[in-house]
Amino acid sequence: MVTLTLEKAVNWARKGSLWPLTFGLACCAIEMIAAVSSRYDMDRYGAGVFRASPRQSDLMIVAGTVCRRMAPVIRKVYDQMPEPKYVIAMGSCATSGNIYNSYAVVQGVDRFVPVDIYVPGCPPTPEALFDGILRLQEKIMQERVFVQREAYGAIKS
């Protein structure tokens, strides 16, 4: 007999069925594409098929350099995703802007969307992305299911 709480069962189901939305903006996207190839098989981790619509996704992987003109687009796509939603910032440019310290480049995706996992590297390997997904799955298992997450950028009353 196996006993577990409803919360653990829901988290177990969520961690094994992540539906990623690809948002490849630069060279990190090539490594993200390689991660779903037959050599690496990202589907083993429950996040295999990239979705084309944010309304069908619960994980956004932002890979590459984010320009200031692209930031509102990423935010709009993030807002269209259903709850619970997660964000992985893949690569040094997505996490901190890397070498592109200029007026046209956002110095990190976390300036306009909440980031759950940072994957370092320039570009990070598919194995590093897998490590990020596994860490996200660990984080999902620790979540409280029936507590609403605070909206990012919302005004507290």
Written overview of the protein:
- The protein is an alpha/beta fold.
- The chain has a single domain, classed as Rossmann fold (3-Layer(aba) Sandwich), CATH 3.40.50.12280.
- Helix content is 31%, strand content 11%.
- The protein has helices spanning 6-15, 28-35, 71-80, 92-96, 126-141; strands spanning 20-24, 59-63, 86-90, 117-119.
- α2 (28-35) packs across α5.
Question: How would you summarize what this structure contains?
Answer:
The chain has 157 residues and is an alpha/beta fold.
Task: Determine the mean pLDDT.
Answer: 84
Question: How many domains would you count in the coordinates?
Answer: 1
Category by helix and strand content: alpha/beta
Compute the number of strand runs.
4
The CATH C-level class name: Alpha Beta
Topology:
Blueprint: H1 6-15, E1 20-24, H2 28-35, E2 59-63, H3 71-80, E3 86-90, H4 92-96, E4 117-119, H5 126-141
Parallel strand pairs: 1-2, 2-3, 3-4
Question: What structural keywords apply?
Answer:
single chain; alpha/beta; globular; 157 residues; Rossmann fold; four-stranded parallel beta sheet; 4 strands
